[in-house]
Amino acid sequence: MLAVLGAALRSPLRRTSHRTLTSLRAAGDTIYALSSGRGVAGVAVVRVSGPSASDALAALTPGKPLPAHRVASLRTLRDASDVLDEALVLRFEAPRSFTGEDVVELHCHGGEATVDGVLEALDALPKLRAADRGEFTRRAFAAGKLGLTEVEGLADLLAAKTAPQRRQALAQMGGSMERTYARWRGELASLRASAEVLVDFGDDVEGDVADQSDDIRAALDASVRSLKTELDAALTDAPRGEATRDGVRVSSLLNAVAARDAAIVSQAAGTTRDVLEIGLSLGGLPARLFDTAGLRVDGEEDSLDAVEVEGMRRAARAAEAAHVVVFVLDAADDDASAVADAFRAIAPVWRRDDGAPAPELVVVTNKADLAEGLGAVVAAAATVRASATAADGAAALVDDLERRVVDAFRSSRDDYEAPAITRARHRKHVASCVACLDAVLSDPDLMPELVAEELRAATSDLGAVVGAVDTEQVLDVLFNDFCIGK
Fold it and tell me: How far apart are alpha carbons 314 and 293 in whole angstroms?
């Protein structure tokens, strides 16, 4: 079998500085790094950021005036004893720069000796040090130039391999997600204010005051219900954003689908032991294909060696994590008992009882070039005739997978709408926020103080998505994925 596809009531619109991050180095540091890729290239970009950035440029261009803010100028770069390069230099004055600090960019020739010479010259200057991984972006976040979701969008853009990934990352980096969460947090702030009014009324109210209190609670519940509907829709749409970013998990007929020899093929059962993984694009979305060991029914493992048993365990784990499971049946084994045994083996994955969504099941009649058909298949599963050796059969499988991926993970709208959830972290906090709103709606007699507390917790959850609370651990993980110079 092959498994495939696999807080306070301040305004939320206000961008705040995050200078209290403990992992930031001293604010007086000036950092430098190569921001473009290593290797021979026409142009290499060296970035300098911090209070001594302009002094560093002056030291490398003795006798020349500093260029005006955001004006590109040609300069000869020199160290203490030698000419390093003829470079295009730019200077960005704080706070109008990427990091919010004084920034200098040196656009040098991309030869290795040239780049190394410029970096060594910068390293020899006082008050300068080499940047840590992702430190330029971290400084931009600390200065309030980028929000947390915008930083995540930048990280996704740097890692984008497909057009949908690029489009989603650009929208997120441009602030689409931050604006959505700011609006939601603004609505929660208004709801919390209404809840505080109910607290002020107290329990012992009568007449017109009691009627007014009831009206406020009814309006509050209606607004909570409306917001919850929107958040529920975002959760429903979450697989699209996460799959675009992380890729759809796919496996099956690996060599044929990948259009190259990614796996050694043998007629013998038990040939595939480990889980083989490759990447490709299906309908413009990134996909990860996994070729796994076959599964056996209970009791058959006793006759297998330990390595094959481990392969089966890994196969089951890969299938459980997949978006689609491609179930390959040998067309030569078309008797009912063989098919029944095969489906008993896959049943724990296909028919989940743990509450998790089950992967979609596609039945493939493998070796279709050797036999005309399979006598019995499960009607509930889609069936695709394909062969691991026939190009037309493999093409049919790829077409079917592309259709399923596009239908499942592309927006149904003709105009692109950026998802509000692109990471498991976002989904976790939004789900927690929805649970708080459910608690408010489930009990119309809930004490106003508890209503206010649930709404506060909901606000905190949304704040965690955009970095308003509890950012340090998230940032440490996120910036570790950045390269030096970003």
Answer: 8
3-class SS of residue 277: strand
Looking at the structure of the chain, the number of domains it has is 3
- Measuring CA to CA, which residue among 329, 432, 336 is closest to residue 376? 336
CA distance 98 to 95: 8
Distance between CA atoms of 164 and 156, rounded to whole angstroms?
Answer: 11
Phi and psi at 156, nearest 5°, equal -65, -35
Cβ atoms < 10 Å from Cβ of 290: 25
> Torsion-angle region of residue 207: left (phi > 0), alpha (psi -120 to 50) or beta?
left
Rounded distance, CA 228 to CA 234, Å? 10
Structural domain that includes position 470? 154-244+420-481
SS3 174: coil
Q: Where are the alpha helices (DSSP H) in 280-412?
A: 306-320, 336-350, 391-409
Name the maximum alpha-carbon separation found in the chain.
Answer: 90
Residue 227: name the closest of 270, 181, 268 by CA.
Answer: 181
Alpha helices, DSSP H only, in 415-447?
A: 424-442
Over residues 356-414, the pLDDT tens digits come to 556 677 766 655 443 344 444 444 444 444 444 445 556 777 777 777 777 766 654 44
- What pTM does this model have? 0.68
Torsion-angle region of residue 144: left (phi > 0), alpha (psi -120 to 50) or beta? left
SS3 201: helix
How many of the other CB atoms lie within 10 Å of CB of 337?
Answer: 9
CA dihedral of residues 253, 254, 256, 258 (deg, nearest 10): 150
> 73-84: per-residue pLDDT in tens?
999 999 988 999
* Position 47, amino acid: R
Question: Any idea what the CATH number is for the domain that residue 93 is in?
Answer: 3.30.1360.120
Q: Which residues pair with 105 in a beta bridge?
A: 47, 90
Type of residue found at 408: A
Distance separating alpha carbons of residues 218 and 233, to the nearest angstrom: 23
Q: Are residues 270 and 403 in the same domain?
A: yes
**CATH at 438:** 1.20.120.430
Same domain, 167 and 122: no
In a domain, 381, yes or no: yes
Residue 186 CA to residue 373 CA, distance in Å, equals 60
Give pLDDT tens digits for 170-186. 999 999 999 999 999 99
SS3 content of the chain, % helix, strand, coil (to 5): 45, 15, 40
Element (H, E) at 90: strand 83-92
For residue 185 the two structure tokens come to 């947090």
